[in-house]
Design goal:
The chain is mainly α. It has helices spanning about 5-20, 30-45, 45-70, 70-105, 110-120, 125-130, 135-140.
Length: about 150
């Protein structure tokens, strides 16, 4: 529980930030907005695939270098993992920013609110800027730093 609770809080807070705009009670009178916001949120969630893929692919290397005491290799690999996460996420995020309306209109007519939601969301790029450092901290028994 001591190890998993801070990670659960971080992931729970991230999910809350991702989906809280769907729960806006003021929009009950405008049911069409929910579909647009949900499409925008799910489109932005594609950025998470980059973060997840790099995290899953790098976790075993973090553990290998940490257990072997190869701190120089660990630091170098962490820098690489951050680059593998940040730059593709930035490029993909900029593409979503530029092409938000055409991408959303593939599913249905894009509402101005949904397009604004795609353009305003920078949280995923901020998360990508640190790469899978959260997993590395957990492996080093530093999970409290992720709070």
């Amino acid at each position: 529980m001591i190890t998993s609770l801070p990670i659960a809080f971080v992931d729970g807070f991230f999910l809350l930030l991702t989906y809280v705009d769907i729960l806006n009670p003021a929009d009950v009178r405008r049911p069409g907005r929910h579909r647009g916001v949900l499409r925008a949120t799910k489109t932005l969630a594609m950025l998470n695939f980059i973060y997840f893929a790099v995290s899953a692919a790098s976790a075993h290397r973090f553990a290998q270098y940490y257990v072997a005491g190869e701190h120089d290799k660990l630091a170098s690999f962490l820098k690489d993992a951050v680059r593998w996460t940040f730059w593709p996420s930035l490029v993909f995020g900029l593409a979503l920013l530029a092409l938000g309306e055409p991408i959303l209109s593939l599913f249905a007519p894009a509402s101005p609110t949904a397009i604004a939601d795609v353009r305003a969301d920078r949280r995923l790029i901020a998360r990508a800027s640190v790469g899978p450092a959260e997993r590395l901290l957990s492996m080093q028994d530093q999970q409290m730093a992720t709070r």
